[in-house]
Amino acid sequence: MNSQTLKAVFITTFFAATKTYIELLKLIVPILILVKVLIYFNGLASLDTLLAPILSTLDLPVEAAIIFASSLATGVQGGVIMYLSLSQEVAFSTSQVTTLAVMMLFVHSLPIELTISKRLGGNILYLFTLRMLVAYAAGFMLYHFHSHFGLQQMPAVSPLAVDFIPNEQTFSEELLSHAFYLLTIFSIIYMLLTFRTAMGKILVTTRMNHKIDRMFEKVGLKKNIAEVMVTGLMLGIVYGGSLLIQSMKEQTFSKYEIFMIVTFLSLMHSVIEDTLLVLLIGANLFDVLFVKNFIGFIVFFVAIKLVSKQAIKTTERPMQM
What we know:
single chain, two-stranded antiparallel sheet
């Protein structure tokens, strides 16, 4: 590409990024406010009480419920910070941390991600139930596998400093933190749109997406679905949300295909960033990568086999955004 073409790409994608970013803000900001209100009024306490008996069946301490609830409400980062603040008082084994980490990867940021998934055409009750059940199933499998073979029973070791204690933020500091978070999302959207446009000019993404499309065609999904799947897989539902919405708006999918897309994205998203985050609390890399992704793919392909196109009306229609 020459300099004029490159300049045009930067300008065009800036306006496109701004438009999609505004659409995403309409979804994220209200949820952020709601979550902060719940935290301020100790709304997570009831969630902890509900989760503790369930997690105890996986030999997880009571404190794991607080970590799990924090991840569910605020994201993997919130769960990691909560773990680091509690790990000085409660000893976790590597098995317990890994089990908890895999479960967190299935349910993190549910308020925001379910809202975005609904915008993509998903059903909130179905996706909430799916993610919670799969999270428990993954934790159940890991716990019993480790217990049966006596694996990973040593104390968990976090790569971060042992004396880590999260500082209490003032209102202005917390506001600044959220502003930085939202600005980061815009920066990522802009960079990704620029990269995608530039790669499209030299046909790199076209060739890659063609190969992925062929894979999904084998399970009955249409062509041109790769861009949506790969965006969610690599970036996640929050950071990739605007690109997912834009991609879905540009194409016409049947209700069956939308069902499968949101099912896949709910189970398989942000495989790089989230995996790296849970490694900070001492989770086992192999188990996190293998178990989480293996179960995600298995459940997705089971859904394809169990849910017929006839069960979901397949009239082609554009996404209602």
